[in-house]
Amino acid sequence: MTAEAGEAMDPTAGETRRYDVLVVGGGPAGLSAAEAAAKTGARVALLERRKEIGYPVHTSGGSWISDMKALGIPSDLYHPIRGVTFLSPNRSARFDYDEPVCCVLDVRGVYQYVAGRAVAAGAELHPGSPVERPIVEDGRIVGVLAKDHRNRVGEWRAPVVIDASGFSSTLVTRVGLRKGFQRYGYGAEYDLMAPNYDQGMLYLIMGSQVAPSGYAWAFPRGRGRVRLGVGVIRPDVDADAREYLDTFTERLPNLAPDFKGASPVEYHTGLFPSEGVVESFVRDGLIATGDAAGQGSTLVGEGIRFALYSGAMAGAVAGEAALAGDPSAERLARYERQWRARFGREMEISYTVNQRIARWTDAQWDEGMDLLARLTPAQAAELLRGDYSVSLFLAVLRRNPSLLRTGARKFFDLAMQRLGKSTPLTDAEVATGA
């Protein structure tokens, strides 16, 4: 289609457009929200400031096969991982899986696949349409002011607007639902052609030498490609992730052979909220979802699967509320209750862990690696995925009973409390697993 033909098909550009649900942001949360809202029968439009869905890439794409299956993502859009190696300055822990449990996503492919599902459900996608500000009337969000792909400003109105704009939180910060994120992860990453890298092995690397107050990663994604990245937490440290990335093999020479002959074909950067979940996700006419609501796991900065789940919840509630003619915060709060019931405790515990380990010294990372190495592969995967449970923590303590005699005991008691255990742990409970 020519540009002229495209313009001829768009006679209402620059005018007021009306929908049942508006979605701001074409990442995983926004796309899944658009799909879910459209499935309710609502008329849905999604506004994405970039000119292409899934570009540029801002994430390493680490995720979990069980979730990709549950979310309906085809297997050709993720690369299964058979081994995970954790490295600290002087220790290591390796876990091998006969049946892979984690994976690395084709990020652009996944986003565009979900975009296709949203369109099939009836949603309209509008790339190249940056939102300038919300439209607020009588204290309620009633739409947004946005440019179209021809740089013309117009009003887009709907009873319910979903802010899925990611870290920038385009709407929620402007209407005072929350302030901008002050603590965040900053990551820099090369997507490499790496002919000597083992495509079955994923590395997570901690310590001040490679990533102060953060971690480095090597995520293979198939066909000789691997994502090598470094992330640090600001303002916990003033380190520049880009500098650590560019000197990675010098800082970790034992992995240099894996990257012999490697060359980057893409360069990515990204920001990830590291403050925990925001206090409230909704107000009259507005829902926040995904990174805009701080709904990613701060344990390892994982957001995509949570964004897909969260967006679907938000879209379904938004569509039903709009069609019922009730866009009140009270009606939209059903989404918040659903989300907190499913993910709230997991996110709270992950944030508590993040706050502790972000301050660890190299010696503490070595001690932590010794403890991690005593776990089974299944237990290590559950911890990394954030599948927290009383039985998992008891299993960890049975393998590492000395933790009850250290400062870590307070953390385990707190985690158990958030999982519903009202009394502190006893040695007998750990010994018996009761």
Can you offer a commentary on this structure?
This protein is of the alpha/beta class. The protein is globular. Helix 2 (28-39) runs parallel beside helix 4 (107-121), helix 2 runs parallel beside helix 7 and helix 7 runs antiparallel to helix 8. It has helices spanning 3-8, 28-39, 65-70, 107-121, 241-246, 248-251, 304-324, 329-357, 362-372, 377-385, 390-399, 408-418, 427-432, and strands spanning 17-18, 21-24, 44-48, 62-64, 78-81, 83-87, 92-96, 102-105, 124-127, 131-137, 140-147, 153-157, 160-163, 184-193, 201-207, 211-222, 225-234, 263-273, 282-283, 286-288. Strand 19 (282-283) and strand 20 form a beta hairpin. It folds into three domains: 3-55 and 108-179 and 276-343, 3-Layer(bba) Sandwich (FAD/NAD(P)-binding domain), CATH 3.50.50; 80-100 and 182-273, D-Amino Acid Oxidase, subunit A, domain 2 (D-Amino Acid Oxidase, Chain A, domain 2), CATH 3.30.9; 351-432, no CATH class. It has 13 helices and 20 strands.
Write a compact overview of the structure shown.
By secondary structure, this protein is an alpha/beta fold. Helix content is 34%, strand content 26%. Helix 2 runs parallel beside helix 4 and helix 2 runs parallel beside helix 7.
